[in-house]
C-alpha cells in the first residue's frame, strides 16, 4: 500500500510543477480573472489546493498550519504561491515517506470545516481522497489554462510513471 501513496505524492509534486509552469505564462489579469470555476480563477483554485493540503496534512500529522476557510487566499502573488506549493509538496512527500504499513492501517480523528463535526476514519481512504481532491482541482486549472489558449501539459499518471518508473514495477 505504501508504494502506491509514495507514487501519488511524487505524482502530485510533478503535476503541480507542470501546471505552475503554464500558469506563469498568464498575465496577472488573466491569472485573477473570474472564469466561473468553483474557486473562480486560476489564482483562487491554486490557493484552494494549498489550503486543502494544509488542512489535510494538519489532520494527518498534527503539524502545520490549517486555514479555517476553504476559499482562503494564502498568497497574493503567483511566485509566492508557487514557492509555498513546492514546500508543501516536499512536506507531503516527507509525510508519506514517514508512514509505516501500520500507520496506513490506522485511523485519524478531525473536525470538518464547512459543517463542523467530529469525524473518525481510516487513514488510507483519507489519503486516497487527499490525492484525488488535488487531481480534481488541478483538472479545473488545466481547463482554465486551455480556455486562455495556453497549451496545458499532460497530467496523465501513466506519463509520470513512464518518466519516473514509479508504479511500473
Lateral strand order in the biggest sheet: 1-2
List the helices and strands in order.
HHHHHEEHH
First-residue to last-residue Cα separation: 14 Å
Uncertain stretches of 5 or more adjacent residues:
none
Oligomer type: single chain
Shape assignment: globular
- Please count the helical segments: 7
Helix content: 55-70%
Rg from alpha-carbon coordinates = 16 Å
Q: Assess the beta-strand content as a share of residues.
A: 5-15%
Average pLDDT level: 97
- Which class best fits the helix and strand makeup? mainly alpha
Largest sheet: 2 strands, antiparallel
Annotation, overall tally of beta strands: 2
Gist of the model:
With 169 residues, this protein is mostly helical. The chain has helices spanning 2-23, 28-32, 42-61, 78-98, 101-104, 123-147, 157-164; strands at 107-111, 118-122. The protein has seven helices and two strands, in the order αααααββαα.
Please explain how this structure is put together.
There is one protein chain. The chain has 169 residues and is mostly helical. Helix content is 62%, strand content 6%. It is built from seven helices and two strands; from the N terminus they run H-H-H-H-H-E-E-H-H. It has helices at 2-23, 28-32, 42-61, 78-98, 101-104, 123-147, 157-164; strands at residues 107-111, 118-122. The chain has a two-stranded antiparallel ribbon. The two termini are 14 Å apart.
Amino acid at each position: 500500500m505504501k508504494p502506491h501513496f509514495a507514487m501519488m505524492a511524487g505524482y502530485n509534486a510533478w503535476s503541480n510543477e507542470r501546471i505552475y509552469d503554464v500558469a506563469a505564462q498568464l498575465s496577472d489579469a488573466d491569472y485573477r480573472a473570474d472564469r466561473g470555476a468553483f474557486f473562480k480563477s486560476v489564482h483562487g483554485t491554486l490557493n484552494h489546493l494549498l489550503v486543502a493540503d494544509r488542512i489535510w496534512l494538519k489532520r494527518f500529522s498534527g503539524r502545520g498550519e490549517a486555514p479555517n476557510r476553504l476559499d482562503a487566499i494564502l498568497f497574493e502573488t503567483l511566485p509566492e504561491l508557487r514557492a509555498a506549493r513546492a514546500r508543501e509538496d516536499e512536506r507531503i512527500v516527507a509525510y508519506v515517506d514517514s508512514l509505516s504499513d501500520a500507520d496506513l492501517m490506522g485511523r485519524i480523528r478531525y473536525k470538518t470545516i464547512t459543517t463542523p463535526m467530529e469525524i473518525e476514519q481510516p487513514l488510507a481512504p483519507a489519503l486516497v481522497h487527499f490525492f484525488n481532491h488535488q487531481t480534481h482541482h488541478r483538472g479545473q486549472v488545466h481547463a482554465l489554462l486551455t480556455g486562455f489558449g495556453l497549451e496545458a501539459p499532460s497530467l496523465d499518471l501513466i506519463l509520470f510513471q513512464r518518466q519516473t518508473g514509479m508504479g511500473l514495477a
